[in-house]
Specification:
This protein starts with a strand and ends with a strand. The chain has 7 helices and 11 strands. 43% of the residues lie in helices and 25% in strands. α1 crosses α7 and α5 runs antiparallel to α6. It has a single domain, classed as P-loop containing nucleotide triphosphate hydrolases (Rossmann fold), CATH 3.40.50.300. The strands form 3 sheets. The chain has a 5-stranded parallel beta sheet, sandwiched between helices. A 4-stranded mixed beta sheet has the order 5-4-7-6. A two-stranded antiparallel ribbon has the order 1-11. By secondary structure, the chain is an alpha/beta fold. The structure holds guanosine-5'-monophosphate (5GP). The site of guanosine-5'-monophosphate has 13 residues, from β6, β7 and α4.
Amino acid sequence: MVNKGLLLVLSGPSGVGKGTIQKELRRRIKDIYYSVSATTRAPRKNETEGVDYFYISKSEFEDLIRTDSVLEYTEYCGNYYGTPKKEVDKMLSLGKIVLLEIETCGALQVIEKCKEAVSVFILPPSFEELRNRLTARSTEPPEVVESRLEKAKWEIEQSVKYQYRVINDTVENAVSSIIDIINENRKSEE
Ligand code: 5GP
């Protein structure tokens, strides 16, 4: 049996816990390739070039756009973020599960362009719970929390365009639902 590659797009509003889910999926499934995005934002402390992102200049990013080298991209909080195409294509051809953890505008581009992509939107158990999580994280001032919640409303509306919606009530539940989705969609060939 030969596994065919699977393009898995994961997104959800800020504070919903997609980073934790993504890390747990990578820990549990060995043949996941996590697509490292390119960005023009500066590295944060404890981030590593080539592991968290490829940190590039604005003009380098615009070259990627011009040469059609990104599968999708967006401008988010004044910086570009995008998925380099080459590695994704290569890993899919090797039969890997390619995981994109990206924000909603980029995910909608992938849903539109790649009909074979499997898209999953992570929902909070409730809007109040999302507010609690964002406030408890306390990495942002209250006005930033409010603007992320505003954005979250629009993002949650877009969730109907995704193939699957998974509620992150507990990480364990969310991860096992996504593993079921992967197994359902991973076609095998004789
Ligand atoms: P951060 O700056 O906090 O690392 O990321 C900000 C947002 O950009 C997050 O929602 C993250 O999922 C999203 N993001 C990261 N890489 C990409 C990408 O390649 N494309 C798109 N569209 N969004 C991305």
